[in-house]
Amino acid sequence: MRRLIEFIVAYSNIFIFLIYAAISLTMLFSFNPYQSSVFFTTANRAVGKYYQYTGRISEYFGLRDINLELQKQNSSLKIEVARLNEELKKLKGEAAYETLCRTDTVVGPVAYGIAQAVNVTTAYAYNYVTVNKGKSDGITDGMGVINRDGVVGIVSAVSDNYAVIISLLNHKLRLSCKIKGSGYIGSLTWDGQSPEYMMLEELPRHVTFERGDTVVTSGYSSAFPEGLPVGTVEDFYREEYDDNFYSVRVKLTTDYFRLGDVCIIGIPSEEERTVLEKDAYRQ
Q1: Which residue among 38, 86, 115, 220 is buried most deeply as judged by most CB within 10 Å?
Q2: Residue 190's closest CA among 125, 95, 283?
């Protein structure tokens, strides 16, 4: 306490000056409108500059949080766009499927209606699908069978009310296919390994394609028109017996574990061709 008193006494002149100066300035700005206006204008300008600089500093340090939030929003938008693209592809596929399976189709493939798969095998070398439509519904052997995802198989036997289909997962079936956008044809066969994959063989090495490309029907089969989806390219390598050709591992678009409804189609213009070829091969 004594030191405080000694300090005040030692600097008493300065304190007295400051007190008088404060009183004088107060009286000056309180009783003189011009000086008061200048003071407050200058003070407001200084305060504004202060807040401007402090605001910029706060914004700078807040940029990281803003950037993280923008990244989260951007990621969410990308996921949403991808989901919408998948929905759009699905809707387009369903629309094409419904168009192909209309019973009033006149040009191109004619559908004989939707059938329900009542039995599906996937664990054997020769797998089949049984559906609840038969001769009474206009079904005959050799007709193609598809679903919303792609090709299922070909009708091999028919009774009055049921039909048995050779599925793609069958060593007896070789389906003519190609890489979408390419005119080169290969044979799609099942190697008996996984019900999700097949092999596209005898594809010339000079054909250009990439993993993820779509494999479609070639149109050479009497059961299917050109361009129906079969699967996507998973991997490829040179064939062991002839390195001028590729063997392509194809991931099927058709899931035989949840087959559900299928559509049985016929191509009227192909009936004459099929009969002619059978007669020619007998000679």
Answers
A1: 115
A2: 125
